[in-house]
Amino acid sequence: MPEIQSSLSPVQQAAMTTVIRSPSLLMRETLAGVITALALIPEVISFSVIAGVDPKVSLIASVVLCLVMSVLGGRRAMVTAAAGSVALVIAPMVHAHGVAYILPAVILAGIVQIIFGLTGMARLMRFIPQAVMTGFVNALGILIFFAQVPHFWSRNPLILGLFALTLLIVLWVPMFTKSVPSPLIAIVLLTLFTVTSGQILPTVGDAGAMGGGLPGLSELKVPLDLSTLQIIWPCALSIAFVGLMESLLTAKLVDDLTATPSNKHRESAGLGIANILAGFYGGIAGCAMIGQTIVNVEMGGGRSRISTFAAGAVLLLLVTALSEVMAQIPMAVLAGIMVIVALKTFSWHSLRPAQLKAAPWPETVAMIITIAATVTTDNLAIGVLAGTLAMALVPRRFSLKAGKSSPAPEK
């Protein structure tokens, strides 16, 4: 993590007034937003394909989500965009009834999320056990890693070489300088190399159309009646709960990483408003993106709302005026960055033999069930629910007995 203005407390470094007055902090936050925007592109495009939505439209919807949440969100420096977990939920409805039902479904989901925020129901998330939280983080690390494998696992030595160079640059450059984020250096240098050398490799442009310009607002093309409600309500509730669960769990993770607090009620209501606005651009709903949040917070050192606002602004610039430049970025380079994100996300401490021996066995079982359920279903909500149920079903006497023989957990 960058050590800028070390005399300031974490809360002070996250304050916008402090960032604006400090050129070094402002530069750090802006560059963190740049690499975050670049890291968002491949995932948003791939999730759009899963949901059956135009990638360009979902990229613009992600711009809306990122910009709105940088103002209304309850967790500073947390990145929100069109997410894979939501895409998996919305895809069956789109395939069965068409894209016209996305807008009313997203609006209804946003209303539910606003209600959760205004009524204080977001506090229910605090009852999720720590073991399930650890399983959630580890499962995310595994999913992020395997999502990158197709982009670098190749017989083409140049693809493997770019991937390896990306890892070396991202890991070694911080030893010499931290003024510019190492992922940004890797993206610029290796993209310039492939373009100037004339190498033909899989790029961002191959994943979806990258034409410039802004799409228009979506029109409501289905009647607002009971038949439409019957189609959209199961999907809308799933979008609302999955989005809230992933966002609030990610907010808790960032709280711990940055030693700063967040407002979960504001996050819930803000997410609902952002999703409604994004829906009017035809995109799927979104939630917090754990991988890109780690890029922003850990690799870029982002701490304030300026970092996420910069990410949204840069993403808007990339998908409109600089779409042709963005399309030239090799996928192997972005995959290398996200592999490091996956390794940083995974809690290696939780798998140490000493830690496993000291932890009560019900917690270890709950962590493993959370990981297994999440990885097999690609659904974070199912994984968290499975782990929480596993903890709840363990007889209390076994849990208490195991807990007495173990030391206090590390903070």
Account of the protein in words:
There is one protein chain. By secondary structure, this protein is mainly alpha-helical. 69% of the residues lie in helices and 1% in strands. The protein contains 19 helices and 2 strands. α6 crosses α10 (226-258) and α10 packs parallel to α12.
Keywords:
mainly alpha; two-stranded antiparallel sheet; 19 helices; 1% strand; 411 residues; disordered C terminus; single chain
General shape: globular
Structural class: mainly alpha
Unreliable runs = 399-411
Helicity level, as a percent range?
55-70%
Number of helices: 19
Strand residue percentage: under 5%
How far is the N terminus from the C terminus?
A: 19 Å
Oligomer: single chain
Main β-sheet description: 2 strands, antiparallel
Order of helices and strands: HHHHEHHHHHHHEHHHHHHHH
In which order are the strands of the major sheet placed?
1-2
Write down the overall mean pLDDT.
84
| Number of DSSP-assigned strands | 2
- The radius of gyration over CA amounts to 21 Å
What's the structural blueprint in terms of helices and strands?
Elements: H1 10-14, H2 16-21, H3 23-51, H4 55-72, E1 80-82, H5 84-97, H6 102-119, H7 130-152, H8 157-172, H9 182-197, H10 226-258, H11 264-279, E2 286-288, H12 290-299, H13 305-319, H14 323-326, H15 331-345, H16 353-358, H17 361-377, H18 380-393, H19 396-404
Antiparallel strand pairs: 1-2
Helix pairs in contact: 3-4, 3-5, 3-12, 3-13, 4-11, 4-13, 5-10, 6-10, 6-11, 7-15, 7-17, 7-18, 8-9, 8-15, 10-11, 10-12, 12-15, 17-18
